[in-house]
């Protein structure tokens, strides 16, 4: 249990750390996503830093090796000379117990040290006689402690049976200063036995030269990386700036400012891009202006024709009403013709009214007369008016309404028209099966669904049903004598309210239309209180 508790604490702190890191790095991540120039410059800096760093490290390492190799060659050459000189001087003493030998060793070391170049300070020379305990080690300068420089391993390598020249690099502290030494040891064979000559050369100048070279390489590499970053920024700017200008110009074009153009400079590829963009914008402007003019003429033609048809339609309506009222006095064929004329005139008048309404939407003249309205009576009134039609085709209307009033700021005339179209279409396509009208509300929206269990909709037809004059089955006879514009007007009414009108359907399983309206005019919808796909269908799928 303590382990689990500790793991939970770690996970909790880790989530907190990730959340804070994501919050504080959000501006950087947003700049990285949005700026092509930043990405190119950053990648160039990283790649050049890696390349220059690797190359600089290689150069510095090779330089240090060359300096050390040169110092090693010089030290080995000097060692050979000193070994020969020591051999010549010590051959004069045949016995290790000669009383003059200690003084001779001291003088020998002094002579060897005096022959050192003054350019290398802190050089140390020592002679030992491990095989002659009576002879003490001699060191010049005598103040230097050689215990850190001449290790037991090195002494063993020099004095052993297979002894010879040995080399190592050691570091010691002399008068508070840490110095690196190249230490050479070599046996010197004499008449009285073997002594060991140790030659210790400081590598101070080599270290200084190596550090200076490393600093130079680092400074040069840093300057080169910065220069590459500046060059990358300038080159990227040359490419990114026209692209940004093109993006801003495209945004202005999409906002309706069709006269926006890019500035063309030079004859390079970017200039060709700007010229091609301007040509495209000019062609687009011409096409849009032409389409707007055609659309304006079409809307004007529809509006003018609709208005002009009002006068003859009124005259024909008066004559048809007169004939229809006297149909009982006609023979059956003429009476039937009078009834057909009356029905078609009613449909023609509805079509004319719908065309006028569509022309208002197209012209942008449709206005919302919103007021606080209880939507429950509107739904009940629509169903009451369509009850006769529903009974005639054998369809039962099922109402599922809240018990309390549902108040929303809407245009009641338009909402009633939308519901009349939805319920009328559901009755027409229900195929003698029940139609459910459901209403639900929350703090922000009101939703009304109309569900039938008839022929349904094929995939993709849920978007086509709102097109003007579209019919799923053109050969199917209309029961209600609709104009084919009802759903088109309904979706415009919903948009005028700031709401949604959506459709769902499945072949053989019926269809459902959902009207969603904000409870307050001007509010933006986020969600609907009722699902678009019926709950019974959702349960079957799950």
From TrEMBL:
Pfam families for this protein: HAMP, HATPase_c, HisKA
Record bears the keyword Signal: no
Main location: membrane
Domain Histidine kinase: 304-521
Transmembrane segments: 217-240
Enzyme class: transferase
Subcellular location: Cell membrane
Superkingdom of source: Bacteria
GO molecular function, one term: phosphorelay sensor kinase activity
EC number of this enzyme: 2.7.13.3
GO cellular component, one term: plasma membrane
Domain HAMP: 237-289
Keyword Phosphoprotein: yes
Keyword tags: ATP-binding, Cell membrane, Kinase, Membrane, Nucleotide-binding, Phosphoprotein, Transferase, Transmembrane, Transmembrane helix, Two-component regulatory system
Protein name: Sensor histidine kinase MtrB
Protein source organism: Actinoplanes philippinensis
């Amino acid at each position: 249990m303590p382990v689990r508790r500790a793991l939970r604490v770690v996970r909790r702190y880790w989530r907190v750390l990730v959340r804070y890191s994501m919050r504080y790095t959000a501006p950087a991540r947003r700049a990285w996503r949005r700026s092509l120039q930043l990405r190119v410059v950053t990648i160039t800096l990283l790649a050049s830093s890696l390349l220059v760093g690797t190359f600089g490290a290689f150069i510095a390492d090779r330089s240090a090796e060359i300096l050390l190799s040169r110092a090693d060659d010089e030290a080995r050459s000097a060692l050979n000379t000193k070994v020969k000189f020591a051999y010549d001087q010590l051959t004069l003493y045949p016995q290790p117990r000669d009383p003059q030998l200690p003084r001779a060793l001291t003088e020998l070391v002094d002579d060897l040290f005096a022959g050192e170049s003054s350019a290398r300070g802190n050089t140390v020379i020592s002679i030992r006689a491990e095989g002659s305990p009576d002879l003490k080690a001699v060191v010049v300068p005598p103040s230097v402690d050689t215990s850190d420089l001449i290790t037991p391993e090195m002494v063993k390598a020099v004095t052993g049976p297979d002894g010879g020249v040995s080399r190592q690099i050691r570091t010691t502290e002399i008068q508070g200063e840490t110095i690196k030494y190249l230490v050479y040891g070599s046996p010197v064979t004499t008449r009285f036995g073997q002594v060991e000559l140790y030659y210790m050369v400081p590598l101070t100048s080599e270290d200084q030269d190596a550090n200076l070279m490393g600093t130079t390489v680092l400074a040069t590499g840093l300057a080169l990386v910065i220069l590459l970053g500046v060059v990358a920024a300038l080159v990227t700017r040359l490419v990114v700036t026209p692209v940004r200008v093109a993006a801003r110009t495209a945004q202005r074009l999409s906002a309706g400012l069709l006269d926006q153009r890019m500035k063309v400079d030079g004859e390079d590829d970017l200039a060709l891009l700007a010229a091609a963009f301007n040509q495209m914008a000019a062609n687009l402007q011409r096409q849009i202006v032409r389409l707007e003019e055609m659309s304006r003429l079409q809307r004007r033609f529809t509006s003018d024709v609709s208005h002009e048809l009002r006068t003859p339609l009124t005259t024909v309506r008066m004559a048809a009403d007169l004939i229809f009222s006297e149909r009982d006095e006609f023979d059956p064929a003429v009476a039937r013709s009078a009834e057909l004329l009356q029905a078609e005139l009613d449909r023609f008048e509805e079509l004319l009214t719908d065309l006028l309404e569509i022309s208002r939407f197209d012209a942008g003249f449709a206005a919302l007369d919103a007021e606080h309205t209880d939507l429950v009576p509107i739904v009940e009134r629509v169903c009451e008016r369509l009850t006769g039609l529903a009974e005639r085709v054998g369809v039962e209307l099922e109402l599922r309404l809240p018990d309390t009033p549902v108040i929303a700021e809407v245009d009641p005339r338009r909402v009633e028209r939308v519901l009349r179209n939805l319920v009328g279409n559901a009755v027409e396509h229900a195929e003698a099966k029940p139609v459910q009208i459901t209403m639900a509300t929350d703090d922000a929206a009101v939703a009304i669904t109309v569900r039938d269990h008839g022929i349904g909709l094929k995939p993709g037809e849920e978007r086509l049903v709102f097109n003007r004059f579209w019919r799923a089955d053109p050969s199917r006879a209309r029961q209600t004598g609709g104009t084919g514009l009802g759903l088109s007007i309904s979706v415009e009414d919903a948009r005028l309210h700031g709401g949604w009108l959506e459709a769902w359907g499945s072949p053989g399983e019926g269809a459902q239309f959902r009207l969603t309206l904000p409870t307050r005019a001007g509010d933006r919808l986020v969600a609907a209180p009722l699902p678009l796909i019926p709950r019974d269908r959702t349960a079957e799928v799950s």
